Amino acid sequence: MASGSPSTAEATTTYKKKPGRLVLSNSALKWIPKDGPGSGAGVVSFECSRLLSLFSSREGGPKAILKIGVKAIPTGPPLSDPSPSTADESHNFAFTGSDPL
């Protein structure tokens, strides 16, 4: 993917048991609910610079799961013992059908 190109990759997924699309672009990773925002689930979006880790389920398993680690956004002065609200986040996406990235 060349820098500055509008390339994207999309896949049909579920997030917190809600159907939607996972979209990866040059700048962000977004999950968009199938029926749009306000349909009981909101859009989940992370800048690519916040992505820390990526794990996938074993190939050939009953379903494909993608686990993404995301760096937390600092909300105040740095603390020696970070509270759960400033901890890094983990999000799990399940791929549906035969629509992998």
UniProtKB/TrEMBL annotation:
Q: List the Gene3D superfamilies hit by this protein, alphabetically.
A: Pleckstrin-homology domain (PH domain)/Phosphotyrosine-binding domain (PTB)
Q: Which residues form a coiled coil?
A: none
InterPro entries given for it? PH-like_dom_sf, TFIIH_BTF_p62_N
The record's section on Pfam families has:
PH_TFIIH
Instruction: Report the residue ranges that make up the TFIIH p62 subunit N-terminal domain in this protein.
Output: 14-97
Q: Which residue intervals make up region (Disordered)?
A: 74-101
Q: Tell me what this protein is called.
A: TFIIH p62 subunit N-terminal domain-containing protein
